[in-house]
Amino acid sequence: MKYKLLGRSGLKVSELCLGTMGFGTENGWGADKAASFEIMEAFAGAGGNFLDTANIYKSGSSEKIIGEFIGPRDRDYFVIATKYSLKDNTTNPNASGNNRKNMMRSVEQSLRRLQTEYIDILYLHIWDDLTPIDEVLRGLDDLIRQGKVNYAAISDTPAWIVSKGNTMAELMGWSRFVALQVEYSLLQRTPERELMPMARHYGMTVTPWAPLAGGALTGKYLTGGQGRIKPQSNRRDPNSERITREVMAVAERLGVKPGHVALQWTRQQGFECIPIAGATRLEQLQENLQMTDLVLPGEEMQRLDEVSAIDLGFPGKFFREEGVRQNNFGGFYDRIIQR
Questions:
Q1: Residue 230 binned pLDDT confidence (cut-offs 50, 70, 90)
Q2: Bridge-based pairing state of the strands 276-278 and 205-206
Q3: Domain span at 47
Q4: How many domains does the chain contain in total?
């Protein structure tokens, strides 16, 4: 396992992040404690140190299992990312949302479940469109100054909000968001319209959730496999099936698994990217780990880019028009080395 710096920080995290949303057996699915321990042990044994969880995952069981696993081990080795925002009860109007009260309450409960004195990375889980961004930033910065959190990050939030937040944090001397977590895969490329250019501009690492589109990009639904994705899901519509078949064809030509191709495609985009790969069985993790040595050839990347291309809309599509580029760059666009 190799390591990458997370955003504009010196924090070294493994090139693959282990998603733990399935740790726990609530709701009739997931990995029990023994299986979760086995997965984390194998991940750490391969050099993995980056774990992703949240206060709401399996009603807190995910955090509890991680805490019990790490308790007798070297806490400082692991980089634990968790999240606040989503409800953990429905009796308190401030037990959800981005507000400071919920942030502080949620963090204290996460610390207890994780059996740790600090959280490495705290994500705002999803934007509530109610709380001022300066309230969020000041709360996160206070937690960092208290030593309860090391780094701030943000998930599932519009690009303009994140941009405003990082600009304000830089102006005020507060801690900035170092990572952006969004859904991103060959079946979900709409973040390329605004979110990915924004992340690249601010030096944020993108940590995609569902990089395998809930398993659809492994090809299992095209070969008779079953799963939790509903048949009417857009991950199983004709367009998604067309993209998945191309992923499978690329994998066959390269002699690798389709899931390896889908994960590696996210890592070969023009921005820093560490995909979050979840696992509820040891063999799933072992298969995902095989991806780390894969490099997709340029011609295969082009095929995948073309089959999954989306309409960028305005202004992204407008900027790419040849006439616009001629006027904007005087014919020198292809001769400019871009950062």
A1: low
A2: unpaired
A3: 3-312
A4: 2
